[in-house]
Amino acid sequence: MKTSRRKFMQTSAAAGVALAGLANVHAQNNNDTIKIGLVGCGGRGSGAAEQCLRAGANLKLVAVGDAFRDRADGAVNGLRNNPATRDKVDVTAERTFIGLDAYRQVIAASDLVILATPPGFRPTHIHAAVEAGKHIFTEKPVAVDGPGIRKCLEAYAAANEKKLNIVAGTQRRYQTGYLESMKRIHDGDIGDILAARCYWNQGRLWHREKAQGMGDLEWQLRNWLYFAWLSGDHIVEQHVHNLDVMNWATKNSHPVRAVGMGGRQVRTAPVFGHIFDHFAIDFEYPNGLHVLSMARQIEGCENNVSEAVVGSKGQWVSSGYRISGEKPWALPARTDNNPYQAEHVALIESIRAGRQINDLKNVAESTLTAIMGRMTCYTGKAVTWDQALNSQTNIVPDRLAWDMNLPVPPVAVPGQTELR
Ligand SMILES: NC(=O)c1ccc[n+]([C@@H]2O[C@H](COP(=O)([O-])OP(=O)(O)OC[C@H]3O[C@@H](n4cnc5c(N)ncnc54)[C@H](O)[C@@H]3O)[C@@H](O)[C@H]2O)c1
Fold first, then answer.
1. Nearest residue by C-alpha to atom 8 in ligand 1
2. What digits encode the pLDDT tens for the residues 286-330?
3. 299 CA distance to ligand 1 centroid (A)?
């Protein structure tokens, strides 16, 4: 059937109105208060809540949720005692939610939720927030296994349909030095990318002993870094930042295959759960590009948290944001920003303007890159992107109860641990 020009104009105009209406459903007038909720009231959650509250006018923290009362109260007291946020905290006893289901009530009470629990819970929390039509600031990483990543990718698509904003705590993407560097790399200033490398090598992190009478679940939650179902292991929990830069440098591509090795040589006491203390991986990207990745948490070794990209016409290093070669460049001194603040300003401005940012696909792919790295190191087998993405192994227990037995999984042994 032929559509007349007039009819086409009418239809387009109607569609335009509908689309404009859709885009504005979540836009908040500058005078409207954006109600913020915090799920996971630890160090980063408290920091993110402060940065979010400082990101504009008419912002209120209205609800918090945590597995534990001491953490929830600690975060609220800290924000109430902070001159920068004290007038923006409106959390009552009724809107302080405790327990593993606290996220549901926080989401219901808020326009925008900050998700900052250990990452094992993140897919469920992201999914629920998108389903409820709420904007999200999500800390990285966003999952610990293939099923969790698939849930995030579904939520990414649903959030796009609903025009929801999702900003992720892969903060290098909001950091001036990285943004300026990536613009140049993408514009070809170092030529074709021939190789790249990234590191998160550091000493030890905090740990918590199991107190007398404490159940398995409480101890693992309070000591979450050391259990893959909660943290993904440190390659996922920490090194995801550097792997994200690798994916970003290659124009948001991702590896197709990984081969790596790792183990647990120093941090072997039971308090360190079952995770590894070192990883080294050769990631293969499309077109035969190889990226070296290392992650170590061992005291007394060479430390290095950085990335570098080697091109046919030059080389970029993240330290000082410098390019050497045919088009030398360096970020002028003192022009870098605070990316932890910038990510929240971007989020609030986007909500206010009725625009959409959706970082979920990029952060889900960077998280899967790290998961793939863990899988090859735990098993000693080559792992493809599709194997990691389509893995049916859900490492997060289906049901959790405070009095449950939750044995510490065995430490993986390359060559013996099955690839699943
Ligand atoms: N972007 C960054 O630079 C950066 C820095 C640090 C941490 N992080 C990320 O932030 C997240 C939190 O890390 P953190 O350092 O704040 O840890 P944390 O241990 O200080 O805080 C985690 C909080 O979540 C709570 N919690 C655990 N399970 C919960 C559940 N099911 N429901 C509600 N609350 C629950 C804990 O009780 C705790 O208060 C992690 O994903 C971590 O990787 C990001």
1. 44
2. 999 999 999 999 999 999 999 999 999 999 999 999 999 999 999
3. 23
CATH match of 174-330+359-390 with 3.30.360.10: yes
**pLDDT tens sequence across 162-218:** 999 999 999 999 999 999 999 999 999 999 999 999 999 999 999 999 999 999 999
**Nearest alpha carbon, ligand 1 atom 5:** 44
CA atoms of 357 and 135, how far apart (whole Å): 10
Domain boundaries, the chain: 14-172, 174-330+359-390
Phi, psi angle pair for 232, to nearest 5°: 85, 0
Do 14-172 and 174-330+359-390 share a fold? Answer: no
Determine the Cα–Cα distance for residues 295 and 236; give it in Å rounded to an integer. 10
- Residue 36 CA to ligand 1 centre (angstroms): 17
The yes/no answer on whether domain 14-172 falls in CATH 3.40.50.720 is yes
Ligand 1 centroid from CA 2, angstroms: 58
What does the block give as tokens for 303?
């430390």
Cα 194–chain centre separation: 27
Q: What's the pLDDT tens digit per position in 328-380?
A: 999 999 999 999 999 999 999 999 999 999 999 999 999 999 999 999 999 99
